[in-house]
Structure formats: C-alpha cells, structure tokens
Amino acid sequence: MAGIYVHIPFCRSRCIYCDFFSTTDEEKRDAYVSALCNEIRFTAQTYPHTRAHTIYIGGGTPSQLSPTQLARILSTIEEHFPPFPDTEITIEMNPDDIEEDVKCRMEDVKCSMFNVQWSMANRLSLGIQTFDDQILRFLRRRNDSATAVKAVRSLQDAGIKNISIDLIYGLPGQTMEVWQRDLDIAFSLGIQHLSAYALSFEEGTPLWQMREQGRVAEADEALSVAMYEALCDRAEAAGFRHYEISNFALPGFESRHNSSYWSGKPYFGFGPGAHSYDGDRTRWSNRPDLGEYIKFWGKSPSAGVLHPTGGDREGPQCSMFNVQCSINLTLSELYNEFVMCGLRTCEGVDLNELEARFGQSRLEYILRMAAPHIADGRLLQSEGRLRLTRQALMVSDDVMSDLMVI
Ligand code: SF4
C-alpha cells in the first residue's frame, strides 16, 4: 500500500508568495501528461503489486489540465497502483476554475472540467487563502472572495461531501478583524476540512523581495500567535478536530493522504519536484525541471535505467540522467523524522513504538530531553505518548529541535 502524489506544475499566473514548482507555459501540457504516465508505469514495475490507499493530485493547479488529461493520469494510476473501494482521491482546485466551469455548464458545454473532476475524486481541496478582496488582489490571486464562496457552493450543489479549503494568516494587511471575518466565512460554508498556515516568506518569491526592499513587513509575532489561537478556538467551537498543527477536520474527515506522510507510510510522488519514500530507509525526489523531466520520461524508459535504491552516507546519489536523486536515511535521521512527525499530530509520539524501532537508549534520551518541557507545560506525557500541549503548538519547532539528535 502506498500514497500516490501527482504534481501538476501548471498555473495560469503566479501568486507572489508561492515557491511551489510550477510554470505558466501552457504548451507542454500534453507532453507532460505522457511523461507523467511513463513515470507512473516505470515506478509500478520497480514496486509491483502496490495498491494506492490515497491519491492526491496537487500542484501547481490540477484544474488547469483538461478533463481528458486528468482522466488519463487517473486511469494510469488505477491500472498500475489499483485503488481500494474507499481510496481517498483528492484533487486540488482553484476557485476561479470552478467559476469558469459553472459558466461553462450554463452554456451547456458537455466537456466540463468541473463535472469530470468531481466525478473522479471523492475529496476536493480549494486554495482560497483569504476572503479579503484587497489582500487577494495584492497576492495576485485570480479570484475574489465572492467567487471562492460560489465555488464551495457549486461543489456542494454538485453533491461533493468532502471539501477542504486552505487559508493563510499573517498576511500583509490582514488585521485580527480581517482574520476573524475569514474564519466567520470559512465556518459558515459547511466545509469538512480546513488547512491554515502562517504566511512564510520564501526566498526568491516576489513577496520575499518586497520584504527585502522594506515594502512589506512580516506580521508581528504576537498577532500571529493571537490569530492561531483564534483559529484553534473557532475550529473547536465549530466541531472541528485539531488533528495536526495546521489541519482541522470534522470527525472522520481527516486527510488520510497527509496523515500517511506524518505516520511514515510509503508514498510515491510523480512529476518534477515530487518526493517519494519507500516506507523503510530510502527517499528520492525528482529534480524541479519540467524540460528535463519531459525529455527523460517522455521516452518511456525501461525498468533498470534509473533505480531509486538510495545512496551512501556521503550524500545523495543522482541518477545518470540527473532527473532523480535518492538518499538512504541513517537511524538518527529516521528517529528525528519519527519524533517530528509524531509531534505534529494530536496523537503525539508513540513511546512504545519509538523504543521498538530505535532502542531503549533513544527512549531514555527523548524522556530526558522532554523533562524540562513537561515541567513547563509545553509537552504532555500520558498513555505511552508524548504530545505538544496547545500552548506549545506555535513554538513547536523549538521543542522539536530539543528532542532531536544531531
Ligand atoms: S499558490 Fe497555487 S495557484 Fe498560486 S502560484 Fe502557487 S501553485 Fe500556482
């Protein structure tokens, strides 16, 4: 069993805060889909008899592909990584694509992006970020607030019962009042899942440059903390379970795909920039280079020419074609990931499992390092688990780094 992630590296335009790998070049879409399907087939040969327990089509903007292209990708996954009847299939969409599709349907155009997409997926994730029109324009998002609300309503009218939205807090110009209004609207929509992230200034993005030039400032830390507190309170009041630092869901609607990343299950990522993990000690990733990706995978390589079995400890090993690099993780790295991923979730770190996997000395180490944080109320040890308390969620990086080994 594995989680399957497919990266669709196309966007109609670029938002100023985003450092995800994507391009506005529309020309390469067909060639890209062919290359992607070849990579999926090739990986299935290397890991035969693997079934998909989750499928996540993300990006970029998956809703920028045509229904035919998306259907081709999904049917290739289904053929080579057969899903289960209850496999979670998520597609990310941008609100403006849904709006256009609705217009499209009203004009009775049969080949409707919207219809095809929702019928293939059982979970849709909408990148909304904020409902404030002025901030949306500043971020160069293509939709306004009304379009975002309409998009959610359209999906619900179409019978989608598992809708997630993304929001960002700490945005330039976003006061506490604006954030509270974002939360008002979000929780009035009847969604099942909310992911909310603090804005980060990623190097190389236009937003990062603006900060370097002194044209925008990062949100004050006290305001960010207050916004996160408000988010947790409002989510709880709306019946959402805070199951991971940045994720909230109605009971039973937790993202199974993301949960498998945090619980160390194997996953295969397809497309430039995508990462994979064999569930044991090997990780590999594709270089974020669309041209090279299409050049290599477009030729349908046979099994054996590129083998993601990991390198030695002198650093990552890259394939001779330079499209994929892999690395074997040391036990210390695996321990660090186990602790970090466990602490991100509301279940926390399973101490029995930690001892079984990494030995008694690591268990003693984590308990020793955790003791001061337990004493000051940042960590809680109960029922064989170590969890972050709510007051520590905003400073989780400090606590996590204390529990790790160098
Ligand atoms: S935020 Fe989404 S739509 Fe905007 S540039 Fe990034 S991937 Fe594309």
Structure description:
The chain has 406 residues and is α/β, with parallel strands linked by helices. It has 2 domains: 2-261, TIM Barrel, CATH 3.20.20.70; 331-403, Arc Repressor Mutant, subunit A (Orthogonal Bundle), CATH 1.10.10. It has 15 helices and 16 strands. The strands form 3 sheets. It has a 9-stranded mixed beta sheet, with helices on both faces. β1, α1 and β2 (52-59) form a beta-alpha-beta unit. α2 runs parallel beside α4 and α7 (176-188) packs parallel to α9. The longest helix is centred in the first third of the chain and has 18 residues, at 29-46. Mean pLDDT is 90; it is low at 104-116 and 307-313. The structure holds iron/sulfur cluster. Iron/sulfur cluster (SF4) binds at residues 11, 14-15, 18, 20, 22, 59-61, 94, 127.
Brief account:
The protein has 406 residues and is an alpha/beta fold. It has two domains: 260 residues, Aldolase class I (TIM Barrel); 73 residues, Arc Repressor Mutant, subunit A.
Q: Which molecules are bound besides the chains?
A: iron/sulfur cluster
- Unreliable spans are 104-116, 307-313
What's the N-to-C terminus distance? 32 Å
CATH names the topology of the largest domain as TIM Barrel
The first-level CATH class of the largest domain is given as Alpha Beta
List the helices and strands and how they pair.
Layout: E1 2-8, H1 29-46, E2 52-59, H2 67-80, E3 83-93, H3 95-106, H4 113-120, E4 123-129, H5 133-138, H6 145-157, E5 163-169, H7 176-188, E6 193-198, H8 206-212, H9 221-237, E7 241-244, E8 247-249, H10 256-262, E9 267-270, E10 275-277, E11 282-286, H11 290-297, E12 317-318, E13 324-328, H12 331-344, E14 349-350, H13 351-358, H14 360-375, E15 379-382, E16 385-388, H15 396-403
Parallel strand pairs: 1-2, 1-9, 2-3, 3-4, 4-5, 5-6
Antiparallel strand pairs: 6-8, 7-8, 10-11, 11-13, 12-13, 14-16, 15-16
Helix pairs in contact: 1-2, 1-11, 2-4, 3-6, 7-9, 12-15, 13-14
